[in-house]
Amino acid sequence: MKKALLIVDVQNDFCPGGALGVKDGDKVVPVINSIIDKFDFVISSQDWHPENSVHFQNWPPHCVAHTHGADLHPDLQKEKINLKLLKGTANKDDGYSAFEATNTSLAGFLHENKVINLYVCGLTTDYCVKASALDAANEGFHTYVITDATKPVNANPGDDKKALQEMYQAGCTLLESGEIR
To answer: Are 98 and 85 in contact (CB under 8 A)?
Structure first.
């Protein structure tokens, strides 16, 4: 059974000092790098918003296409990535889930390559990681959320715990990076 790693939105703007920096967001990078070689495929997603995105009515402008903030974190082992997905590319597109990518069909790629197990990590637990994991489970993939390789926004205290519970209830397996074989 083939397995893939989905690295969700580990971008400069979501790391400390970024336009929408997540506390300790950069700390997921060494965890991801330590497991990246355990997968048949490595996929990354990136917010790639237009400057006038309606998404910015709810969030500060972030990950604007072709900016430093939209780039993947510089320490992430980008050379290991087989497929890069762009999401949130249209003015009226929030693009929370990697399954909403506009340049390639993630579900199509996974099915074509006979991937059964999808491991999800990245930023953020309570938004894009959650949306991607829920969509993966809905698509029928055995979905694993790597809890020590994701960090939350926690706009409301406890959002991370609620998100993990929601993913678990949807059939996702929650595990830590050391449990991956």
So the answer is: yes
Domain map of the chain by residue range? 2-179
Known catalytic residues?
9, 87, 128
* C-alpha to C-alpha distance for 132 and 129, rounded to whole angstroms: 5
> What is the tens place of the pLDDT at every residue in 107-163?
999 999 999 999 999 999 999 999 999 999 999 999 999 999 999 999 999 999 999
* Tokens found for residue 35: 């497991």
In the 3-class helix/strand/coil scheme, how is the chain assigned residue by residue? Answer: CEEEEEEECCEHHHCCCCCCCCCCHHHHHHHHHHHHHHCCEEEEEEECECCCCHHHHCCCCCCECCCHHHCECCCCCHHHCCEEEEECCCCCCCCCCHHHCCCCCHHHHHHHCCEEEEEEEEECCCCHHHHHHHHHHHCCCEEEEEEEEEECCCCCCCHHHHHHHHHHHCCCEEECHHHCC
pLDDT digits (tens, 9 = 90+) for 28-82: 999 999 999 999 999 999 999 999 999 999 999 999 999 999 999 999 999 999 9
- Superfamily per CATH, domain 2-179: Isochorismatase-like (3.40.50.850)
Residue 7 backbone dihedrals phi, psi, to 5 degrees = -100, 110
